[in-house]
Amino acid sequence: MFIPRLCSTVVLLALFGASIFLNNLIGRSIFVLLALFLSFFVTKELCAMLRNIGMETFLYPLCIFNTALAGCIFLFYNSKYQLLAFCLLLAVLPVLALLFLLGVKNSETKLKKLFHTFAAFFLFIIPIFFIINIYIYGRQLIVSEEKYSFNVLFLFFILATKIGDIGAYVTGTLSNKLLPGGNHKMIPSISPGKSYEGAAGGLFFTILLCLFFHWKTGFVVSVTSAIVTGILFFFGGMAGDLAESALKRACKVKDSGHTIPGIGGIYDLVDSPMMTAPIFYILLILELNFNLEFFRI
Question: Are 37 and 265 spatial neighbours (Cβ–Cβ below 8 Å)?
Answer without folding.
Answer: no
